């Protein structure tokens, strides 16, 4: 489990295309400290498993399902990525509960800079819109953010200078894809209410 608080801005150093997968080598001095085979590291919000670790770099395999459901397939050598290690037991939950299981992708639609922050509008797939609410939490490229405004096919977030300087959202421009993970609690509540409604209907 992650919190959506990005630890560092890493870099893709190699990409190996396989038959139905891809192997990435990524540089991240912070997240690789003490890393070992089998550890999890979130890359742009996608939970990946460390295959190899040497120095300040690690490799991770990404299967076709993940490439199809996320923006990782667009990464090339030199791409910057948000990196986060899993939350340690007993640590503070600085953001919100993030699983590292991407629900879909959006697209940067517009950036509106201000003196002390920047408002970014992001497209929202129709099947995810019911989970995104004003002042709720959403994960964008692995970053825990608060929704400012939520429409049927978009939402906006306000980014402080720290987020702009230390994550990929400071680099992305209109047209660029981003990974989206909605609040898992909302999905569980929907499922439980749906199952309850079905049960009550069958009992009548």
Automatic annotation (TrEMBL):
> Per UniProt, what is one Pfam family of this protein?
Lum_binding
Keyword Repeat set for record: yes
Q: What is its EC number?
A: 2.5.1.9
Origin superkingdom: Bacteria
Q: Where is the Lumazine-binding domain?
A: 1-96, 97-193
Which sections of the protein are Lumazine-binding repeats? 1-96, 97-193
Reactions catalysed, as given in the entry: 2 6,7-dimethyl-8-(1-D-ribityl)lumazine + H(+) = 5-amino-6-(D-ribitylamino)uracil + riboflavin
The coiled-coil segments of this chain are none
- Gene3D superfamilies named among the record's database cross-references: 2.40.30.20
Listed A to Z, the keywords are: Repeat, Riboflavin biosynthesis, Transferase
Task: Tell me the pathway.
Answer: Cofactor biosynthesis; riboflavin biosynthesis; riboflavin from 2-hydroxy-3-oxobutyl phosphate and 5-amino-6-(D-ribitylamino)uracil: step 2/2
Instruction: Give the PROSITE patterns listed for this entry.
Output: LUMAZINE_BIND (PS51177)
Role this protein plays: Catalyzes the dismutation of two molecules of 6,7-dimethyl-8-ribityllumazine, resulting in the formation of riboflavin and 5-amino-6-(D-ribitylamino)uracil.
What is the name attached to this protein's record? Riboflavin synthase
Q: Which organism is it from?
A: Streptomyces prasinosporus
